[in-house]
Amino acid sequence: MTALPAGTNKQLGLVIDLDTCVGCHACATSCKEWNAGGYAAPLTDQDPYGRDPHGTWLNRVHAFEVGEGAESRTVNFPRSCLHCEEPDCVTVCPTGASYKRAEDGIVLVDPDTCIGCKLCSWACPYGAREYDYGHGVMKKCTLCIDRIYNDHLSPEDRVPACVRACPTGARHFGDLGDPQSAVSQLVSARGGFALLPEFGYRPVNKYLPPRPRRDALAAAAAAAEGGAGQTAGASATAAAAGAGAGSTAERLFAWIDQMLSR
């Protein structure tokens, strides 16, 4: 079995905003592209153009429908390794191939000592481990370790490929062990949460919850002011007032909200 470090100097990880993720899969494809030639390479595919394509993806995006009726919405949910503070995927490894770094808390797999037994994938409740059938070893998110410390890249590019590629700014990278870091402050301000905290693995990565729909908030405010019977009229007035105020971007988003809420 593999031991965990007594502590880590940093807790590098991701903060993912479920409110602004649009499910475009740019994070998944950029991850695949970068890591197909980096530390985790190769990321093989089987029958990619056939009837049953499958392969190794270190980041996957799922879509869920939540709520009912007018309150329903689509939540896009990116999933990758959470770089837990107490990862069973590490302690269950019989060869020491799966390990957690003391200097930054990143969980990695050494392909030279991995025997492909898949014990780590069974131990991970998040489904974050990927078996590479072409290479015969386990693969996982590395937080682009060969990128974030690469001095040959410009400072803005020294972030995981998924973060750099996200078109809506839904992915954030930093030290979640530092309460003063930008990512920690963001988690605190938005009520960020860890997945399945009851398991005790203490995931470093955090998710930011979707914000309440703005049209629902307008309806609630109107109901409080004038009663349920006047909700529709008050909402229309609020929408009209909002459409005429604020920046061009704010008016655009107000119009998009109005169209999507029909």
Entry keywords:
two-stranded antiparallel ribbon, 262 residues, alpha+beta, Alpha-Beta Plaits, 2 domains, 29% helix, three-stranded mixed β-sheet
Produce the secondary structure layout.
Elements: E1 12-17, H1 26-35, E2 45-46, E3 54-55, E4 60-66, E5 73-79, H2 88-91, E6 98-100, E7 107-109, H3 119-123, E8 130-132, E9 137-139, H4 145-148, H5 161-165, E10 171-175, H6 182-190, E11 206-208, H7 214-226, H8 231-243, H9 248-260
Parallel strand pairs: 1-11
Antiparallel strand pairs: 1-10, 2-3, 4-5, 6-7, 8-9
Helix pairs in contact: 7-8
Overview of the structural elements:
The chain starts with 11 loop residues before the first strand and ends with a helix. The protein has 262 residues and is α+β, with helices and mostly antiparallel strands. It folds into two domains: 12-208, Alpha-Beta Plaits (2-Layer Sandwich), CATH 3.30.70.20; 214-260, no CATH class. A three-stranded mixed beta sheet has the order 10-1-11. Helices cover 29% and strands 17% of the residues.
Task: Briefly characterize the structure.
29% of the residues lie in helices and 17% in strands. It is built from nine helices and eleven strands. The chain folds into two domains: 12-208, Alpha-Beta Plaits, CATH 3.30.70.20; 214-260, no CATH class.
Largest sheet: 3 strands, mixed
The geometry reads as globular
Residue runs with pLDDT of under 50 for 5 or more positions: 237-244
Q: Count the domains.
A: 2
As for the CATH topology of the largest domain, it is Alpha-Beta Plaits
Provide mean pLDDT, rounded.
87
Number of strands: 11
Strand order of the largest sheet: 10-1-11
| CATH architecture label name of the largest domain | 2-Layer Sandwich
